[in-house]
């Protein structure tokens, strides 16, 4: 199967076929418009490949997710988030020396310029931390102005190291507490948890259960091929905008409730159901009624039409973490009942709607004392190495071009201008 044929207006055209390392087949239509004058239309890009990539593989039917060939379950069980970040960005799991060097760089660059802390004073305490994260990410370029053609690794390290500090500072400012500086003898996850939970007036004890759970959560969110925010990063990066601006755009795309913002919406939905007498069947029925405008948040996926392997791991992690912490969260019970009812209901079965990565993650964040409006920030911290990896892969591809899709115009045909007295 090395070509595909298209017949348009009685004429036959042939296009090359690309087959990936996992057997995925793509019809290369790069010459379609030049040959036929026509373009394709694919609302939501569900059938359109934007690029070839060697970073992440998903099989939606089999529920497979691999980062650079490693199964997500293996990475979540055995790796640290920093190791997975190295794998995604540089292509390989680091050996001991490489990991030590990478960790040292991330530690050394964890602080933000002291003057950047003044930016936070301009935000109201009610500012959503995703708005702060996106603007602070772009603002890093004002302190570390990228120079075209320079080695981008220093910016990659700075962004990875500083984004967790920016996120923690946003949280502390929102609750009126003093910001906590990073501590160099702590790991990435322990440092972040300390920066959001410690207060100057008392000793902070790292909770190793939380650290282990956060590592797993960030790994599970680290990449997911051409999802909405990663595609945004590729589109913005294709104009050769700098890394900070590109990631800032990815943060904004992730914020939407249909994407990364769903983890916050899931918790709000579970709270709504709990306050409504835990009447979860009522909400399942609402989700089936098109006119209700209600969706079961945390359910459904464009690619997974079987199960999201991350949701399976997160559901198990929920039980583990809450059990170890001795927490009995009624929202977890409601979530499990919602899943059970939905998975046995023909509406969800026919549409292949299963829990996705956002369905259980918030319950674990809650158990770690992370507030609901920070959940999507946590998603962004996890997804950051994936975004960077795709930006880097595209930047290093000499054949990459500015992303500029076409359209089929359906507006008014040509007409003459009328002076206002004649309109
Ligand atoms: C993420 O792409 C990625 O990889 C994303 C992500 C990643 O790691 O980057 O996995 C992270 O974004 C996960 C998704 C988080 N979003 C949500 O949980 C929001 C709720 N889910 C939906 O909005 C929806 O399922 C999407 C956005 C996830 C997928 O949308 P699609 O692929 O465009 O599917 P669709 O909206 O066309 O739905 C198909 C049918 C429709 O019904 P019919 O018109 O066929 O009758 O299923 C229905 C939809 O109405 N449907 C739902 C539903 N999701 C889809 N009905 C009720 N509740 C839902 N959650």
How would you describe what is shown here?
It is a single chain. By secondary structure, the protein is mainly alpha-helical. The protein folds into 3 domains: 3-59, Rubrerythrin, domain 2 (Single Sheet); 68-255, Citrate Synthase, domain 1 (Orthogonal Bundle), CATH 1.10.580; 262-367, Cytochrome p450-Terp, domain 2 (Orthogonal Bundle). It is 50% helix and 7% strand. The chain has 17 helices and 6 strands. It has helices spanning 32-36, 72-78, 81-90, 96-108, 129-143, 153-174, 188-197, 208-220, 228-238, 243-255, 262-275, 280-288, 309-325, 330-343, 346-350, 357-367, 375-395; strands spanning 3-8, 11-19, 25-27, 56-59, 64-67, 70-71. The strands form 2 sheets. Strands 1-2-3 form a 3-stranded antiparallel beta sheet. A 3-stranded antiparallel beta sheet has the order 4-5-6. Helix 3 packs parallel to helix 17. The longest helix is centred in the middle third of the chain and has 22 residues, at 153-174. The chain is globular. The model has no long low-confidence stretch (mean pLDDT 97). Bound molecules: s-citryldethia Coenzyme A. Residues 44, 224, 227, 258-260, 262, 287, 295-303, 351, 353, 356-358 line the site of s-citryldethia Coenzyme A (SDX). Residues 44, 224, 227, 258-260, 262, 287, 295-303, 351, 353, 356-358 line the site of s-citryldethia Coenzyme A.
């Amino acid at each position: 199967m090395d070509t595909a044929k298209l017949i348009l207006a009685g004429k036959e055209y042939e296009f090359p076929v690309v087959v990936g390392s996992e057997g995925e087949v793509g019809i290369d239509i790069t010459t379609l418009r030049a040959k036929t004058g026509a373009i394709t239309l694919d609302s939501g890009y569900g059938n359109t490949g934007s690029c070839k990539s060697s970073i992440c593989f998903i099989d939606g039917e089999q529920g497979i997710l691999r980062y650079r060939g490693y199964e997500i379950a293996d990475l979540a069980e055995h790796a640290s988030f920093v190791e997975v970040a190295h794998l995604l960005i540089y292509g390989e799991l680091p050996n001991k020396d490489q990991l030590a060097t990478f960790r040292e760089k991330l530690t050394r660059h964890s602080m933000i310029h002291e003057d950047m802390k003044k930016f936070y004073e301009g935000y109201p305490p009610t500012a959503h931390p995703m708005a702060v994260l996106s603007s602070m990410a772009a603002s890093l370029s004002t302190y570390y102005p990228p120079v075209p053609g320079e080695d981008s690794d220093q910016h990659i390290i700075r962004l990875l190291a500083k984004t967790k500090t920016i996120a923690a500072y946003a949280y502390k400012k929102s609750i009126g507490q003093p910001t906590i500086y990073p501590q160099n003898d702590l790991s990435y996850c322990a440092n972040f948890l300390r920066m959001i939970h410690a207060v100057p007036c008392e000793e902070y004890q790292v909770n190793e259960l939380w650290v282990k759970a956060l590592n797993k959560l960030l790994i599970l969110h680290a990449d997911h091929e051409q999802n909405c925010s990663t595609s945004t990063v590729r589109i913005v990066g294709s104009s050769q905008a700098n890394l900070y601006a590109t990631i800032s755009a990815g943060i904004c795309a992730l914020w939407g409730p249909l994407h990364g913002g769903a983890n916050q919406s899931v918790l709000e939905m579970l709270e709504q159901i709990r306050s409504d007498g835990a009447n979860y069947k009522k909400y399942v029925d609402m989700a089936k009624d098109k006119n209700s405008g209600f969706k079961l948040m945390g359910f459904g996926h464009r690619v997974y039409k079987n199960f999201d392997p991350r949701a399976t791991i997160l559901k198990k992690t929920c039980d583990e973490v809450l059990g170890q912490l001795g927490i009995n969260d009624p929202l977890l019970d409601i979530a499990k009942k919602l899943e059970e009812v939905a998975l046995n209901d023909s509406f969800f079965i026919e549409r292949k709607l299963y829990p996705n990565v956002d369905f259980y993650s918030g319950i674990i964040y809650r158990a770690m004392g992370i507030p609901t409006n920070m959940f999507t920030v946590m998603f962004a911290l996890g997804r950051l190495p994936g975004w960077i990896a795709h930006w880097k892969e595209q930047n290093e591809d000499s054949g990459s071009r500015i992303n500029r899709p076409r359209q089929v115009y359906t507006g008014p045909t040509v007409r003459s201008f009328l002076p206002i007295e004649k309109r």
